[in-house]
Automatic annotation (TrEMBL):
It comes from the Eukaryota. Residues 12-87 form the 3-ketosteroid-9-alpha-monooxygenase oxygenase component-like C-terminal domain. GO terms for molecular function: oxidoreductase activity. InterPro entries: KshA-like_C. Residues 90-112 are annotated as: Disordered. Keywords: Oxidoreductase. It comes from Panagrolaimus superbus. This is 3-ketosteroid-9-alpha-monooxygenase oxygenase component-like C-terminal domain-containing protein. GO terms for biological process: cholesterol metabolic process. It holds the Pfam family KshA_C. The keyword Oxidoreductase applies.
Length: 112
């Protein structure tokens, strides 16, 4: 994100998301700024706090096959139809206990 803080300066915040396993990711935030160190730290902590609040929403979401849409939802249904091409009957799904219904295979697996 390119940021303009007005008289306080400008900055760039980058998020680095790294998959750790099938359902876990590591998020890192880096900020480069021409502002005071105190303001940069405050802004970055605020950004991380907002991200953490989003994590609560992401971890409690559930799939609804035919959700209700409002006019401000945009082309979500079009995106869902397009994205469905990447799923098959053999695609892994997440069980309630956090395990996967089946383990995805890699071309590097020896048991093919």
């Amino acid at each position: 994100m390119h940021l303009d803080f007005g008289f306080l300066g400008r900055g760039i915040v980058m998020q680095h998301i790294t998959p750790e396993d099938a359902v876990q990711q590591r998020a890192r935030f880096v900020m480069f700024a021409k502002t005071t160190a105190a303001f940069a730290k405050f802004y970055l902590l605020s950004e991380a706090n907002h991200f953490e609040r989003d994590v609560f929403i992401w971890t409690n979401k559930r799939y609804v096959k035919n959700p209700l849409y409002c006019k401000d939802d945009g082309p979500i249904s079009k995106h869902r139809r397009w994205f469905s091409q990447f799923y098959t009957d053999n695609s892994p799904t997440l069980n309630k206990d956090g395990t996967l219904t089946n383990t995805p295979k890699s071309i590097n697996d020896n048991d093919w």
